Amino acid sequence: MAFTRRSFIRTIAAGVAVGSIQPFGAPHAKAMSDDGQPNPLKLPRVFAGGTIMVMSGSVNVYENHSTNARVFGSYPGVAIVANRGDEQTIKLHNMTDSSLAVHWHGLDVPSAMDGHPMDAFGSGTTKEYSFRILNRAGTYFYHSHSHMRTAVDVYKGLAGAFIVHDQEELALGLPSGERDVPIVIHDARFDAAKQFVYAPTMTDKMEGWLGNVMLANGTPNAYLDVTPSFYRLRLVNGSNARIYDLRLSDNSELFVIAGDGGLLTKPIKVESVKLAPGERAEVLVDFSRYESGTSVVLKTGKFNVPVGHMGAPTYPQGVEYSIIEFRVAGTKDVSFTVPAELSVIPPLPDLTGVPVRMFETAMSMMGGMKHTINGKTFEMMRTDFEVNSGEMEIWELRNMEPDMLHPIHVHGPQFRVLSRSSGPLAPHETGYKDTILLNPLETIRILVTPSRYSGMSLIHCHNLEHEDDGMMLNFMVNATTGVHEEALGEIEVYPQPSSDAIMVRRTIDIDERLEIIDVNGRIVHSTIISGSESQIQISHLVRGSYNVRVGRFSTSIIKQ
Ligand code: C2O
Ligand code: CU
Ligand code: CU
Predict the structure, then answer these.
(1) Residue 467 — φ and ψ, nearest 5°?
(2) Which segments of 260-340 are extended strands (E)?
């Protein structure tokens, strides 16, 4: 299937000269930064195949200044855009002076391709990552996962967006092209020479490194020209430690359509979306509500956080900052209507008898203060626990500390959030997730289905200072009978074309939902299949082509 929506990310080299900026829009809407100079939002280039050069060198974070950064191909890191079902190959040539592991955050890939720090490749060498895209359409990202230097690598630029499309999502006709905007947000500190400052003190290691300059796709004090119409914003929190409560400056509504693992069942209207490091959400914004010539700012609002026992960091959490100013101009286009339904997320299965595994986060005083999970800190080659491919488990995450926030991330397939002891789930937490913010003294239950791929995997805190400090455990995914790596959940449907019934053959026999989707993206048939071979009646369907989707895989069929 040819991908036709690549145009949304324009090629804008970092440091393109920009003419003088005219005062624009309402005065309330000025974004602030440390030099007051607005900069056009940088948009990532799209990976077009081949090799990504991983470099350390100078880029223009600020116009007319060189800043030493670390980049995947360009600054901001190239965006990888793929379709579900694709075989994706990405070669990376490491031109930096340290070894590098790269992780495809949110994607379910073979263990050897997952960017475990033990699989790092050295300076001057090339590594080929290749895997099948099993994930649903959504906004994922990729970043350095190098041993004890994930924080500094990501902080200096080693991160990029990874966008997956699928037929279900394309059929929705969501805003596309220039109106589909990836926004990777991170905060930084700069010195007078506009160099990244990274010098965590003991307090910073406890709280995580927090900056006072908000960067959107590496752009300080960013603005984006938009037309008065609907936009799809793909929000990625790529920060080391900062949590954002993202909202518009006039508090007008956002429609959340996706969380970490893609589309929700339906759009949910909110005033703000809170994202911890590693989390993503997609929102639809209606800029046709604004008059041409005015602007509105995407900002992070105030929220309360407990003061840590090491005292407040220099630039605390929960403080208001502007991130991007949207300058609205042009003729109103009100042709888009927010769809009523987005996707089908199967109801939670019966959880009786599903084993519960406990994880406690705490602080150890042994050998200096360390963030721990189950009393342990990371050891590269130690297996901390074992799970079986495809066998569901409930993981109970308990934060034992009154003053620490931990965004907990699980590698491999997306999980479902079952409960939060602090209250209901936020809208973007109701779909598939791979990272969840564990608040002080909170308990969260998640439903984890271990990958079909056996091998070592990771659970860790996505506060990157905590991660580098060792707040990470290895878990071994054991292959189980009936789950074969080579099968990858592939399905075979025959006969083709068919008229009355189709046979669906799988090489695995776990319970999965089968859906038949018509050309308009409507789900016309939905059922749970369990055996490796199932017969599905399709005589009630009108002639035409359909998509049959089982679990993470889909294929098209023709009904005669
Ligand atoms: Cu985004 Cu293991 O990390
Ligand atoms: Cu991950
Ligand atoms: Cu943490």
Answers:
(1) -60, -50
(2) 262-270, 272-275, 280-286, 295-300, 321-328
* 137 CA distance to ligand 1 middle (Å): 19
Q: What's the mean pLDDT in 9-25? A: 29
Cut 0.90: pTM above it: no
Ligand 1: centre distance to CA 466 (Å): 12
Which ligand neighbours the alpha carbon of 135 most closely? 2
Q: How far apart are CA 274 and CA 64, in angstroms?
A: 34
- What atom of ligand 1 comes closest to residue 141's alpha carbon? 1
Residue type, 539: S
Nearest alpha carbon, ligand 1 atom 3:
105
Pairing mode, if any, of strands 126-132 and 472-478? unpaired
Q: What is the largest CA-CA distance in the chain?
A: 72
- Cα–Cα distance between 53 and 61 in angstroms, integer? 19
Closest atom, ligand 1, to C-alpha of 106? 1
Determine if residue 427 is left, alpha or beta; phi over 0 gives left, psi from -120 to 50 gives alpha, anything else beta: alpha
- Write down the pLDDT at residue 4: 35
Q: Which atom of ligand 1 is nearest to 105's Cα?
A: 1
221 to each of 2, 34, 189, 298, how far by Cα in Å? Answer: 36, 8, 13, 11
**Predicted confidence (pLDDT) per residue in 429-443, tens digit:** 999 999 999 999 999
Collapsing DSSP to helix, strand or coil, 436 comes out as: strand
3-state SS, residue 521: coil
Q: Which ligand is nearest to the CA of 460?
A: 1
Average pLDDT over residues 165-194: 96
SS3 content of the chain, % helix, strand, coil (to 5): 10, 45, 50
Q: Are 467 and 301 in contact (CB under 8 A)?
A: no
CA atoms of 41 and 18, how far apart (whole Å): 11
Is residue 422 within 8 A of residue 443, CB to CB? The reply is no
Residue 477's SS3 state is strand
Shortest-distance Cα residue to atom 1 of ligand 1: 105
Contact 151, 240 (CB under 8 A): yes
Q: Per residue in 488-527, pLDDT tens?
A: 456 777 777 788 889 888 766 667 788 898 877 788 998 8
Token couple for 302: 């105030």
Q: What is the dihedral of CA 520, 522, 525, 528, to 10 degrees?
A: 120
Q: Tell me how far the alpha carbon of residue 411 lies from the centroid of ligand 1, in angstroms.
A: 7
Task: Give the residues surrounding ligand 1 with Cβ less than 6 Å away.
Answer: 103, 105, 143, 145, 278, 409, 411, 458, 460, 462
Count of CB atoms within 10 A of residue 440's CB? 17
